[in-house]
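Anyone? Bumping this.
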Amino acid sequence: MAGEIQDPIIRVRDITVQFGTTRVLDGLNLDVKRGEILGFVGPSGAGKSVLTRTIIGLVPKVAGSIEVFGVDLDSSSTSQRRNVERRWGVLFQQGALFSSLTVGQNIQFPMREYLRVSQRLMDEITMAKLTMVGLKPEVAERFPSELSGGMIKRVALARALSLDPDLVFLDEPTSGLDPIGAGDFDELVRTLQRTLGLTVFMVTHDLDSLYTACDRIAVLGNGKIIAAGSIADMQASQHPWLRQYFHGKRARAVMG
Amino acid sequence: MSSDPKLERIAKGNALALCATGTWTASFAPVLERMVADAEKLAGSPQSIFIDVSEVAKLDTFGAWLIERLRRSLTQGTVEAQIAGLSANYSSLVDEVRRVRATPVVDSSTITISGMLEQIGRTVAGVAGTVTGLVDMLGAVLAAGVRVLIHPRSFRLTSTVHHMEQVCWRAVPIIVLITFLIGCIIAQQGIFHFRRFGADIFVVDMLGVLVLREIGVLLVAIMVAGRSGSAYTAELGSMKMREEIDALRTMGFDPIEVLVLPRMLALVLALPILAFLGAMAALYGGGLVAWLYGGVEPEAFLLRLRDAISIDHFIVGMVKAPVMAAVIGIVACVEGLAVQGSAESLGQHTTASVVKGIFFVIVMDGVFAIFFASIGM
């Protein structure tokens, strides 16, 4: 791995996660720089989602420490933790929109909880967020069950961005989208990252996303980070899985 | 790192500058909103207005939108408000926000008389829809049953046995316990009130007739509607939500045959068994109380019971059981398949399943009472 990164936004040290006797993550270290889009790849079942869920506190870890925004999440007080949670947004793989609320209410949900602002401002910000993720304002009145897969991802992103977070976790944001939709989504993430100064932690399988959207790539294998660096570093790597991943049929197709 | 946001007014010749300073982010949104509302009152002044944002330390969507909102409301007639001093970092954010068209929110929840009448009409039509839905499902289940009779290999035995275990075997303890307690209570109340007329022994007649004809089956049916009807609705409903039922259909399976028929069959077999066990538990409980509380010896109780009841009472109770089971099952499956995409809808239909199930069970009981009375059973 490259040397220590100064002032990382996420600092993961020696994380071990175990389900029963299966060790999914084994002494994993990872830093995420402020303001970058980190693409996180690895074979299916390697534990990419597990790492994401461990960082956001949904999966308990056996050992190790996690610091987000310089706050150690194990020793932090409840109010510190809430403060950290307010500053990140999460896009779940299936969207995880609240099915009994409309799209607008979904986006307003975190605002209602954390901010004391008027309904008018919440409605206007909702419109702004919908515009930002490329949806029409009318969508706000619909229920999640009336949306297409791509729209669900966009609405989920709008909800993740609801409080203007500094950090967003995207779990396979382009899976299940058509190539054009996926390309648009990458573009969108890029634009939002530039406009809002976001740091993005993106679990993905999409080679296009890696090439077009990501600043840096980290690769997970055998419960550890086996490589981290730019796309050029990945292509130069001699690791067998990486060679296959970045020089396989589909990768050649992407590179043209 | 973060400082309180401010919006200062500075007059520059015949122009007015509004200087925004500090942190314009979501955490300060309530303060910002008030300041902006204050500044919006300047609208209509003939001066040209600049909104100077060069001193803003931090800006996010909330801050950017409020500045944009201020700009829009100050732009009136020939006077155009302008944003000045925008740093390169934030210009794309402000541009992004400028594309937003704030649509006025239409409040569609006004109550009108025609709206209320419409609602009543829809409800009445909905009741008719419920009945046709039930008849539909009954027909579909019978048709699937006939198909299975013609092709017995398509019958899902494993599934039926599994549901039998869920609705029958696992329900035995709670059903026996509750009916036992109800038997005790009926006997205790009977003895308490009959004693005043010296008619203690007639409690056996009351207990026997009531339990075998009505309470046994009715109570068990109500409990099964609450216990298994709700489970059926929730199972089918969540399968519907996750498109599992559509998947079955595309693979050429009939959901009625695969999902509904085994459940219905299990329920129709289970309810008579449970009703019988329930009736026995209630008689046992009643007998126990009659002995311990009323001093009726078990031998006397049994002798009296033999005189008081005939096989007719027992048959009347047992005949009702499978019919009630069918009603509960059909209501539960119709509701389950009517679930829409949301978690709320699942909850509503599960509630409706139990409420309608119990309602129809009681209605059926009344119909049976009239029928048996007229044939003299």
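Late reply, but here is one note on the structure posted above: The mean pLDDT of chain A is 82.
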